[in-house]
Fold this protein.
Amino acid sequence: MRIALIGTGYVGLVSGACFADFGHQVICVDKDESKIAALRRGEIPIFEPGLDDLVAANVKAKRLDFTTDLKGPVAQANVVFIAVGTPSRRGDGHADLSYVYAAAREIAAVLSGFTVVVTKSTVPVGTGDEVERIIRDVNPSADVVVASNPEFLREGAAIRDFKFPDRIVIGTLDDRGRKVLADIYRPLSLNQSPLMFTNRRTAELIKYAANAFLATKITFINEIADLSEKLGADVQEVARGIGLDNRIGTKFLHAGPGFGGSCFPKDARALVKTAQDHDVQLRIVEAVLGVNDSRKRAMARKVATAVGSSLRGKTVAVLGLTFKPDTDDMREAPSIPLVTGLLDMGAKVHAHDPAGMEQAKKELPDIEYFDDPYACVKGADAMVLVTEWVQYRALDFERLKAELAQPVMVDLRNIYRPDDMAAHGFVYESVGRAPEPKV
Ligand SMILES: NC(=O)c1ccc[n+]([C@@H]2O[C@H](COP(=O)([O-])OP(=O)(O)OC[C@H]3O[C@@H](n4cnc5c(N)ncnc54)[C@H](O)[C@@H]3O)[C@@H](O)[C@H]2O)c1
C-alpha cells in the first residue's frame, strides 16, 4: 500500500514509521520546513524511545520518506491519513479544526484514483462529514471514501502501542474503505489486535469517550487520595485493593498532581463542548475538568505546607517537567501551574528534566535550569518530584541531603516510601499517604 501521512508530529511520525515497518510505502508530509529538513538529515524532532532506530531503518529500506509538498504523495497514495493537531480553540475549548480542514482542502485538490482519506487526528463527531463535504466541494469527481481511524498510542510507549494495540477502530460503512484499511492493518493480525469496524461518527466518539473515561479514573483516585490523607489511609493500597477487581483494573489509578498532556485536558474540554452543542450535559466530565484544574493549582500550596513557612525568598527544586516520563512534551504539564504557583508565592525555582528542558524553556522562561538533578537541588529549601522519570527512582538520599539547604522532599508521584524517607531524615510529603492516627 502507498500511504501519505499529513502531519508529522508525535502521532504522524510514529504512525508513518510503524506503517513503513509493516512493509508499506510511506511518505510523511509536514508544513514545518525545519521539521522535515531535520528528518531528512536523519534527526528526530521529538523524544520518543526507539523512534530514531525505527525511522533510520525504514528510511534506509526506502519505505519511508519526508516532504513538505503533499501533491505527489497524495496523488500516488491508496490511503491518506490526516494526523495534524487539533488543539483547544482559544476562548471556548472546542477542538480547533482549522488544520484538519486546511489539510482536507489541500488533499482534495490533488487526489487521483480511488483514495481512502482517514482522520487519525482526534476530531469531534461530525468532522468526517465535514471533511467529506470539503473534498466533494473542491473536487466533485474525486473517487474517495472518508473514514475515521482514531489513534490511541501513548507518548513514551508509542511504538509498542502502535504495534500491539488493544484494538484498532475503523469508522466507515463503505466496503471498499473497510477493505483497504483492513489490508493496511493486516500485519497486526499476527499480534491478534482486534479490528473493530463501526460507522464514522461512532469511531469519532469512541476516541473522546476513551480519553474522558481515563481522565475520570485518574481524577477519581486523586480525590480518594485527598480523602486518604485526612483519614490516615494509603491511597496506593486503596488503588491496588480496588484495581485487582477485574471490573475496575489497576491501570490509571495512580494518584498524583493531576492529569495534563497533549490529549486528556483538550479532549475532555472538546467533548463537553460537543455535548453542550447538542443539549446534553456531561456532568461527570465537567466535574473531572474542574477538579483537575484546581488540583494542579493546589500543588504549589502543598509544597508551601511541606516547607512549613512562607516560600518568599526560598528556593524550590523541581525534578521532572514533562507531563509524563519518556517524552519531551510539555503540553498542559502539571509542572506549569506548579512552577507558576511557586513563583507567585515568591519562590525561586530550579528545574531539571531528562528530555523536556528545551520545550520547558518556552513555557517557563523565568526559572533556572540544570543539567543534573543533584546540581538542581543544591541550596534548595525543598525539592519536588513532579514526573516519575526512571532517573529519579533511585536517587542517592545522602547526596540529596548534603546538597539541599533543608531535607524537604515533596513526592507528587509516590516514588518513595514515607517510612524510608523518615528513616533517612527527610521531611517527606507524598500524595494520599498520611500516617495512621494514633488511637
Ligand atoms: N500526542 C499523542 O499522544 C496523541 C495520541 C492520540 C491522538 N492524538 C491526536 O493526534 C493529532 C496529532 O497530535 P500530535 O500530538 O501528533 O500533534 P503535533 O502538534 O505533534 O503534530 C501535528 C503536526 O501537523 C503539522 N501540520 C499542521 N497542519 C498541516 C498541514 N496542513 N499539512 C501538513 N502538516 C500540517 C504540524 O506542523 C505538526 O508538525 C491530534 O488530533 C491529537 O489529539 C495525539
Observations:
- The first strand starts at residue 2 and ends at 6.
- The two ends are 69 Å apart (CA to CA).
- The chain has a mean pLDDT of 97.
